[in-house]
Amino acid sequence: MRVLTVNVVEKLIPGPKETGLTAIDKRPQAGRVQVGELGLTGDMVCDTKNHGGPDLALYAYADEDANWWSAQLGREIPTGLFGENLRTGGLDITGALLGETWRIGAEVEVMVRAPRIPCITFQHRMQEPHWVKRFHQAGRPGAYLKVLRTGSIGAGDPVEVLSRPDHEVTIGVMFGQQEPAKMQRMLESDVDLMDELRETAQRVVARA
């Protein structure tokens, strides 16, 4: 399991009229990049209402899922096209548990926080019919990460899973079916959850 590329914004590009410029255009960096609590040095967030902050500091996407999309769409999915900061290899991001922790390289430690929710900017970026719906249906959202320990990372760095919490809600489950029983067990565990996800889980359990 390793990092294939580390990507930061190349330049701000026009997004949908409602949101103006967007920093979704990420490109791979040579050498090592510093990682702080708010993400990569040199990166940027335009829509700070819906993106960025400590809980959404890094966005990771698996090369295996990008290759799947490439076959589905009949086009290349170069690293950074989805706006990801990290393109990984050999790491099951969809199967990662909310709250599990990874070490990236020798220094950086992160926590899996939430699946990526597709938005109008992503739709505009991809220029694919019904992209938001298709992305939801595919169930390969990638994961947002919180930085627990700062440092530097670079292409080729190994990724090690340090800990996995005692529940069954993966990135894929949170993004997809959201089974009540699994949500209940997650709420009963001591996992550190984002407020929005805790509230979602409580609503799912209440409706069951």
From TrEMBL:
One of its GO terms (molecular function) is pyridoxal phosphate binding. Transmembrane segments: none annotated. InterPro entries: Benzoxazolinone_Detox_Enz, MoCF_Sase_C, Pyrv_Knase-like_insert_dom_sf. It holds the Pfam family MOSC. Residues 27-162 form the MOSC domain. SUPFAM superfamilies: PK beta-barrel domain-like. PROSITE patterns: MOSC (PS51340). Gene3D superfamilies: PK beta-barrel domain-like. This is MOSC domain-containing protein. It comes from Kribbella capetownensis.
